[in-house]
Amino acid sequence: MLTFLHILLLKTWQTSLIALRALRRNKMRSVLTALGIIIGVASVVAMVSVGNGAQANITKQVSALGQNLLSVFAGSRKSGGVNSGLGSASAITLEDAEAIGHEVPDVMAISPEISTSAQAIANGRNWSTTIVGESQDYLQIRDWKPTAGSMFNERDVRGAAKVAVIGSKTASELFGPLNPVGQSVRIKNIPFVIIGLLESKGAGMGGMNQDDRIVIPFTTAMKRITGDKYLRCVNVQVSRSDRMDIAQQQITDLLRQRHRLPPGRDDDFNIFNQKEIADTVNTISKIITLLLGSVAGISLVVGGIGIMNIMLVSVTERTREIGIRIAVGAQPGDIRLQFLIEAVTLSLLGGALGVLGGIGVSKLIGMVAEFKAIVSPGSIILALGVSSAIGIFFGLYPAHKAAGLNPIDALRYE
Question: What is the Cα 371 distance to its own chain's centre?
């Protein structure tokens, strides 16, 4: 048994060396044959990596909105058949926000929101930024931390205090490298003391820079800045992610009751569920990634057809060589194995070079698109596995044809 295994291994090794020498003798043909696989594997790795990176980037933006977040916006979905849009109707009041906090059991924290744009003046500079009125729980809801100073407290909200927490982008524009905490900033000629500096969060959903803002108590915003009597929205943090749908339904029922909306009447508010947005985004991203990978996979099949075509031509060109090998004792199985090894070698070599090329292309696309492409080990293993299978599948017929040649006819072939 050991002797037979030894002979089998020796014969396989010798056949492999013959196959590799044949590939080396025809370098240009080997390179061109492998090129289809290289392009196919590179396309698969690059497309899947870019798709994964885009999905992770969008998921990060959704996560940056906060933890277990529901946002209740004013504005009916439709009015006379026309969508009114967010904030188009003055439907959400401060009393509504307080009722949500008191009567919905799964609500952990709420932050009534007022938003406007204004010119901020400080340190001899001015900058047009977003002024956001929120409650003391805003940073907890948004999972946002100050890098210096602290958030205003409940007493500041009750007293409509002239205090502010500033975003990193606004702080940079107004104060440069200086620490803004303790400094004063004027908004509509009203002086505010900056008590906190927020950590950078970058772009959020829709591409808006979350760091370009000044956060003040919502009571201060309503009384001193905007004069609004209605809220733009209410940010709600739910206790657990698996309770978000239940909390959303409870808030819907509560607001419909408070707004005296009869059955069949459209809501005069919109509730955006962070979990639903994240699930929808992930589903769409996975479908897009699958489509990109499938389209790129077609080029792998084309590369396999190219291997079969070249190997068939090679069988014809090397008919006399095959005849000589058979004449000196090579078995049909040896000939079949030789051509299979050549096809699989080209596929594996093309697959390895394709992986390297795909990683490079994905990194380049990520740099241009300004997000990090994620190269998953699974996509690399899949691409190499598929390229090997293609080499075997498309190499079988040429190998079978070579092994089936009549040695006498092969030796006569010119």
Answer: 9
Closest CA to 130 of 75, 183, 209: 209
Residue indicated by tokens 């820079």:
209
Give first-to-last CA distance, the chain, whole Å. Answer: 42
> 97 — alpha (psi -120 to 50), left (phi > 0) or beta?
alpha
145 token code pair: 């931390």
| Per-residue tens of pLDDT for the chain, all 414 residues | 446 565 556 666 666 666 667 667 777 777 777 787 888 888 888 888 887 787 777 777 766 666 788 989 987 544 444 444 444 445 789 999 999 999 999 999 999 999 999 999 998 899 999 999 999 999 998 888 899 999 999 999 999 999 999 999 999 999 999 999 999 999 999 999 999 999 988 766 555 788 999 999 999 999 999 988 889 899 999 988 888 889 999 999 999 999 888 888 888 888 888 777 777 777 777 787 777 777 767 777 777 777 777 777 766 666 666 667 667 666 777 777 777 777 778 788 888 888 888 888 888 887 777 677 877 787 788 777 877 787 777 777 776 766 666 666 555 555
Strands 163-166 and 107-122: unpaired
Global confidence as pTM: 0.63
**Bridge partners of residue 271, in order along the sequence:** 72
d(CA 244, CA 361): 40
